[in-house]
Specification:
NADP; NADPH:quinone reductase-like Zn-dependent oxidoreductase; alpha/beta; globular; Quinone Oxidoreductase, Chain A, domain 1; six-stranded parallel beta sheet; oxidoreductase; GroES-like_sf; ADH-like_N; single chain
Amino acid sequence: MRAIGVTRYGGPETLHEIDVPVEELEPGTVRIRVSAAAVSPTDTLVRSGARADAEQADAPGDVPGMDVTGVVAELGPDGGDGLAVGDRVIGIVMPTGPHGAYREEIVLPVGSVVRAPTGASDAEAATLPMNALTARRALDLLALGTGQTLAVTGAAGTLGGYLVQLAVHDGLRVLADAAEKDEELVRSWGADVVVRRGEDVAERIREVAPDGVDGLADASIQSAQVLPAVSDGGAVATFRGYRGDGARGLRVEPVMVRDVAEARGMLAGLRDLAEQGVLALRVADVLPAVEAAEAHRRLEAGGVRGRIVLDLTA
């Protein structure tokens, strides 16, 4: 089966068309004919080998990709738990070896698949699963109450955008960062206060919230640099495993999307919010799958707003 992956780790140029085995259907799974796959920062870690064993130089057919839109092609032996062949769906993929989203077909647990949002294109729908689930998981771990203040770094990015929009929907007061060119976009999602992004963003947050914010979601991955923005005893959600320094009684919650990768009800709820217009599905560009290397180059160069999406039908 055709996929886009790597047989050696390295830069974007290592991505090319490869052949991968057809995956077997098992109970509790569905086969999806993939039409679109979003390109995320995690994909670049798979491609570069950053997630591989330290001594592993070769990538035996590693395929990146955590988000798919497609059509149900086949159901596992016990059925599809409400899904039917021909249904247009979205799904989240945990990429291990050849099991990544940049491929013609993929087999996923039923718990990772829901109906695609009505009215969204395949590319738009593919931007939802991984980042929206990550944002929802982060907010649930922070467990802030209505009216409390959440700071979001990296607010103009895909994860940051979902964090802002979901937090506003939850009734939180949102203090977000943005570059000057992105300020109006972040305000349009309902952020109460927008401060300028940068290495000293914690200081700017404290200027607005002198006692510190109740919670912070660090989508820009600044780790220790942003801890001073949070009040003593406050909560911080991190996204690359950072666990804090134990100071000031801060509760640091590393967010792992794998913990909710089969939380089907959660994904369906996020899909519903997208249909209602609560969540904006942002596509930066759509490229043929064979141009995955260019998608990775552009993502790593920075400044991409929304997700670049690969067209697997091209």
